[in-house]
Amino acid sequence: MSPAKKRARTYDPARTRAAVLAQFGNVREAVGTLTPAQLALPTRLGDRTVRELVAHLGAALGAVGRFLDKPEPARPNATLLDWPFAALADIARAPAEQHPDPGAFLADTEQHFAQRLAEAPATRLLDTDAGAMPLADYLVTRTVELVVHTDDLNDAVPGLDIPYDRQALAACTRLLADALAVKAPGASTEVRVPPFAVVQCVEGPRHTRGTPPNVVETDPLTWIRLATGRTSWGSALADAKVSASGERADLGALLPLMT
Fold it and tell me: Which fold has domain 3-169?
């Protein structure tokens, strides 16, 4: 089943907007405390530095304004579930050198973003890299960018500990869980990511009642790391970060969903 043929769950536009602003604010406040030495630290994203990752996060939020500046498409031709499978993972390099003060850059980005959101209805179509979709849907994808890269920043800078907005974490978890159900359609395996998501996937005998014969369960951050290639299936099992029971509960061949 392609993303276009699977109906995406709905997200409350007001709560999504608030979540994006809250998580970006968490990042902005933390980045403002970083020293030049910390900004130069490497990240787990190849040879990208913390400064380059911060620049990417600003660009990821700024993309909303850029898309709003383009003519509105006549009709949508993409769903929210198309986005995880689009080639959107490149980390920008050039902007990092254009913003000597990353904290000020993020503050300016946040202010401009909030202003543009106040002007645009949730139904406004955006011509995104994944296709034409409503602003409300595209903002859900921003929770993935923000949560995933918040985790990258926390990993790169010892003691940084940027908090996660609960609604942003929930939206990110749910979108990536639904993406797994798109990639491996079926109902033989139940994937649980409490308290935010439960999906059924993988072809095989359909479960109807009682305890499913194939169950995978993990926490939200571990799930996000698995779905985006920050950790491997084998490592998560070995570290007891994920439990898997049943002959169809091995998701190793299906992960990551996006990198």
Answer: Four Helix Bundle (Hemerythrin (Met), subunit A) (1.20.120)
